[in-house]
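Shift notes (night). Ran Single-stranded-DNA-specific exonuclease RecJ while the centrifuge was going.
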Amino acid sequence: MRVCTWPRINAGGRIAEAALGLRLLRCEDTHEAKLMAERLDAVNRKRQGVEADILDLAMQQAAAQREAGHAVILLAGKNWHPGVVGIVAGRIKEQFNRPALVGAELEDGAVKGSGRSVPGLDLGTVIIAARQAGLLTTGGGHAMAAGFSLPVSNVEKFHAFLDARLAGAAELPNAVDLDIDAALAVSGATVELAQSMATLAPFGAGNAEPLVALSNVQVVKSDRIGRDGNTLRLLLRGADGGRLKALVFRVENSPLAPMLEDTTRPPLHLAGYLRAESWNGRTDVTFFIQDAARA
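Came back to this:
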């Protein structure tokens, strides 16, 4: 449900009809539910395209701001859809390990946006302070996420305010250290173990999903799949001879792609999430790769 359904239900509220997902969840007629599910799937594919178009440009601009020495990344673009700016902000935050705020410039001259922060830097408090200082029209949130709106003429002053209030972000490393919860042999990555880990859910702030490390793993097979080829489907082989299916999302322009697509390279150490998934009455285990390093 988490992997296949929730992004589609959320997509209705992001770029189409917010009530569509709710109607699907409440629907008791199979035929009508199927039609609504197909509609949501189409909306989600559109959302993915809109997001990808914005993300490519936003990543380039974020890298430029990082090189220019900004502690906080703040981006605003014309023709950017306000329904996906929060997702884009999250992707940028993950890539650069910095608070990131992304806004859509609207026709009335306002910018409406969303921000994501990193642990230890309270974005919500700073957004409220910016609103009280007259920089924002609206704004609020909590430590890790916030929403805001402001006149486009205030964007540069708002960026300077963010850099000053969140100056500590400039000292953060460019990458985040991963806290590994368990190390496994590939043969130990079983459906039963994945199902046992799933009993610890729901995962989120304060209860992170267990992060698993696999050592000395060989990529046996690698294929690009998905609408835009932005997902890698892998077959892994461990030093113990065990085999495991794996997926990697958003590999376009990622340093992970060349490492994982070359099946002739030496073994790798991998970090990711072990999940059991059921399809057509069959349950399999899949490893969702988050990072890789040379063994």
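The longest strand covers residues 212-225. The helical segments are 6-15, 19-26, 30-67, 85-96, 123-132, 155-165, 191-198, 256-261.
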